[in-house]
Amino acid sequence: MKILFAASEAWPFAGTGGLADVAGALPKALRERLVGCRVVMPLYECVPQELRENMTLIATLTVPVAWRRQYCGVFEAHVGGVIYYLLDNQYYFKREGLYGHFDDAERFAFFSRAVLEMIGHIDYLPDIIHSNDWQCALIPVYHKLFYKDQPEFAKIRHVFTIHNIQYQGKYGMEILGDVFGIPNKNKSLVEQDRYINLMKGGIEAADLVTTVSPTYAQEIMDPWFAHGLDGILRMRSGKVRGILNGIDTVSYNPATDKELFASFSTEDMTGKAVNKKELQKRLGLAEKPEAPLVAMVSRLVAHKGMDLVQYALDEFLQGDVQVAVLGSGEWVYEQFFGEMKRKYPDKCAFVGGFIPELARKLYAGADIFLMPSKSEPCGLSQMVACRYGTVPVVRETGGLKDSIADVGDGGMGFTFKTYNAGDMLGALRRATGAYADKAEWPVLVGRAMRTDFSWGRSANEYKKLYRGLIGTVA
Questions:
Q1: How would you class 420 by CB atoms within 10 Å of its CB: exposed for 0-12, middle for 13-18, buried for 19 or more?
Q2: d(CA 229, CA 166)
Q3: Using one digit for the tens of pLDDT, what is the confidence trace for 345-367?
Q4: I want to staple 74 with a disulfide (CB 3.0 to 4.6 A). Which of 59, 248, 403, 471 is the partner?
Q5: Same domain as 290, residue 205
Q6: Residue 16's pLDDT band (boundaries 50, 70, 90)?
């Protein structure tokens, strides 16, 4: 079984978020389970020089982009036992930043077509191409339109994964032929409400569609979550699956993480208290071990639940508690957390931006981790928090619901269902009340730390999915 994993970003080469984590970890976990898996991505300007030095140019070709033909260099790299193909075109990819350019439509049309064109130039004929998000959604579309009748492509099947349905790749119909090279007679593949929607095309053309959690797979059938794609998803619901993402449990390991003030494990938890004390010092909080410390590491935007926090935080801070927030985003929330820090200097800390080493110190030093998201396709922070013995408080949505069970049901966290500040506050108070129980709290912490959030679980599910799909090939 051979899988070609196509993504617009992947660690350690380039990334902006969760997709890069998935593309860097899932293929490795698949290979450990004897599934052949290689990764293809663009060769961006930001790829570090030390990684470039170990790349080999294995092919050059020209790629049709509508009426044009563009150069493509195929570089091969080996990292962590996985083979990566990085596709080079300096006009499209020698730029600052991965996305947000005026011609992103053309850039990723080129990449999608290049993925298919390169297959005849490498020693790897995949059984399945696994494409991710709108930037790769044209891969199954182009295969259906231009390649399926060629002998070497006839048996290739397609999996398309939606990581966040909010970002769909929407463009005006006027560029259908000139940029995407799609004949007008085939426009129904990508057309929605008189505009081009690339994600819609991926859903239509792929053999299976996956999302990053089972609950999210159900939620995106609902207009509240689907950003306009609920209709097509309900029509194609028979091919939609949800598989929960994992985390890198080697990198996120409190016993070996060099960014922490002190290491700890389920066998020896003394370092957890050291991390809390040193974190309180660094953030200027009162050094009170008895006060439960609640952390948030998040983008400060509405769909992450910041409006609930804004409504309830002042009341919550009336108690003997502490709150530490790391993140940046909308001005109104940055100003709010800055004001809370000034109002409660011993109880509330706010650090703007994202500082990776401080994020790890927050995961390790806090007692409780808050994620009150309005929607959350998967979420990784709640899993990382558990790994570091920090008990999560989450809303029951998407991957938060699938990964965190309430203590009342024998789980490792505290959950609330309704998107309501009062319900969030109730869950927080249940958590701080449990923290006061010095006999039961360590049991809960140990349960959280022992929960398996590794990529192995996800890889096993993908392996079954791939096998089932190949079994449908005549």
A1: middle
A2: 10
A3: 999 999 998 898 999 999 999 99
A4: 59
A5: no
A6: confident
3-class DSSP state of 393: strand
pLDDT 10s digits, 76-100: 999 989 999 999 999 999 999 999 9
Buried b (16+ CB within 10 A) or exposed e, 39-64: bbbbbbeebeeeeeeebeeeeebebb
| Tokens read off for 399 | 């991957």
Question: Given this model, what pLDDT does residue 17 score?
Answer: 79
CATH number for the domain that contains residue 348: 3.40.50.2000
Q: Are 403 and 466 in the same domain? A: no
For CA atoms 321, 347, 383, 208, give the dihedral sign. Answer: positive
- What is the tally of structural domains in the chain? 2
- pLDDT score, position 409: 94
Domain assignment present for residue 261? The answer is no
Banded pLDDT at 472 (limits 50, 70, 90): low
* CA dihedral (325, 268, 289, 421) positive or negative: positive
Contact indicator for 259, 357 with CB cutoff of 8 Å: yes
* Same domain flag for 231 and 370: no
**pTM of structure:** 0.91
Q: Is 25 inside a domain boundary?
A: yes
211-230: pLDDT as tens digits: 999 999 999 999 989 999 99
| Strand 191-192, strand 170-172: pairing | unpaired
| Domain identity same for 465 and 447 | no
Residues 439 and 465 placed together within one structural domain of the fold: no
**Helices and strands per DSSP (H, E), number in the chain:** 18, 18
Whether 33 and 63 map to the same domain: the answer is yes
User: Is position 257 within any domain?
Assistant: no
- Determine the straight-line distance between the first and last CA of the chain, rounded to whole angstroms: 15
The domain in which residue 206 lies consists of 2-246+457-470
